[in-house]
Structure formats: structure tokens, C-alpha cells
Amino acid sequence: MRYQVLGPLQVIDRGVVRQISAPKMENVLATLLARGNQVVSVPQLTLEIWGENPPRRATSAIHVYISQLRKLLCGATSDDCPRPVGPIVTSTSGYLLQVKPDDLDCRVFQRLVQRGRAELTARRFTAASATLSGALDLWRGSAFGRLGNGPIVTGFSDWLEELRLECIEMQTEAELALGHHRELVGRLYRLISEYSLHEVFYAQLMRALFASDRRADALAVYAQAADVLRSELGLEPGLRLRELQRVVLIADSRHRVALAPAV
User: Fold this and answer.
1) What is the mean pLDDT of residues 108-121?
2) CA dihedral 244, 246, 249, 253 (to 10 degrees)
3) Which of these, 113, 31, 121, 29, lies nearest to 71 by C-alpha position?
4) Which UniProt keywords apply (predicted)?
């Protein structure tokens, strides 16, 4: 059984996607996956599903959802699998979902990010770009498809999205180091549009434009970043952006100054 959470939640059994029949059952599974191989208590599941106002029979409902999930994850109906044996384990304090390292796509993603980070630090830029691109290819949308708003799934989703952002930064950094400046310009313009408060992408775009002999455009990006940061946060650009602006302003127009990769 494999689980995909880097997008809408999916359960895949031997290549077949198994449908989860009820939204609250999906919430239970998402919570167990977010805490894979760790016990989740019934009160935690209750808070995750219903918030601060659970129904009177919340505990009974959770037992039903767990029973339905067991049948789903053992790949059988109640008729041919009355006592399903699957990855959900009952403990005295709650429930635990057993997950192998390669069964959950976000764990594969995490390992690839760690490997890509090490390759980037070692200045193995081609390998880093390939590894980090493979990590990003695992994503199909927002983590868990923005399922529910409980603290466990929300916190785990936010962490995954931050790791995804770091992965994009590092993959772009590797591509800049490989000299793919012109190819990156369009992507980076899209990134500053999507992440308008993220200074790293402005800095990377300035570097890509400057290395492509587009000094005026690089300065315009700095001005855009400064305007957005002042209007949205009341802040001035950070040291990295200010230093990039200085380099672009004083650079001899007859020579293209190489900006060192930030690794």
C-alpha cells in the first residue's frame, strides 16, 4: 500500500487508487499519515476532525472511521475480510499507522531534498539539479489538497510546503551555478508573482537578469521588491538584495560580473 500526500490524499494499492468514501474518514487517515509510526490519541483525532465543538458520540464515530479504514487498507470488504489485518495498530492511548519509508511520497521527497542539499553544498550542481527536480516532480498540488484545518495536518502541511519552497530555491541555485540564466528568467518571474514576499527569488531573478546582460531589468526587479516589502510589511529589502543592487549599479557595463552562487 502506498500513500500520496503531496497533493490530494490518495491511497494506491498495486497501482489502483482506492477511494475514501467519507471526508471525515479521509481526515482520520491524513492525521495518522502526518504522524506516521506514532500513536495519535482519540482526543487528538477528535480535535483534528471536529475542532473545539465535537459531537457527543465523537469517540464512537472515530471507532467507526478506524474500522472502515482498516477494511480499506487491507484491500477487502466487510464480507470477505471481517477481521482485516492491516497497518493500523491499536494501542492503549490511541491508534498508529505503520508506514514503510518508501510507502509515503513525502518521505521520499524529504530524502531527495536532503541528498540534493548535500550535492549542492559539495558543488555538484548537475547532480543537485537532477535530484531536486526529481523531488519537485513528486508534487501534484498543495499538501493533502488543503484537507481540513486541524493542528496536526495543518502543521505538517505547512512544514512540507516550506520544504518544497527550500527545494525550489536550491534547484534554482544549482541551475544558476550551471549558467542557465536566460532559461530561468521566466520561471523566476512566475515565482516572485506567486511568492511576492520571498526575497530569495527576487535575488535569484536579479542575478539571472544581470548575467543575461539585462541590468535595467535587474534594477527594476529590485525596485519591485522594495515596493512590495514596504507596502506589505513596512520593511526595507534585506542585505542580500541591497548588495545585489549595489553590484549591478557599479558594474562596468563592458563586463558582466559573475555573482557567486549562494551555497
Assistant:
1) 98
2) -70
3) 29
4) DNA-binding, Transcription, Transcription regulation, Two-component regulatory system
**Percent of the chain at pLDDT exceeding 70:** 91
Exposed/middle/buried for residue 111 (C-beta within 10 Å: 0-12, 13-18, 19+): middle
Q: Which residues contact 130 (CB under 8 A, 6 or more apart)?
A: none
Domains 2-97 and 181-263 share a fold: no
The residue length of the chain stands at 263
Architecture per CATH, domain 181-263, reads as Alpha Horseshoe (1.25)
Mean of all residue pLDDT scores within the chain = 91
First to last CA, the chain: 38
The CA-based angle 81-87-89, given to 5 degrees, is: 100
Query: Tens digit of pLDDT for each residue in 56-112?
Result: 999 999 999 999 999 998 864 444 454 456 899 999 999 999 999 899 999 999 999
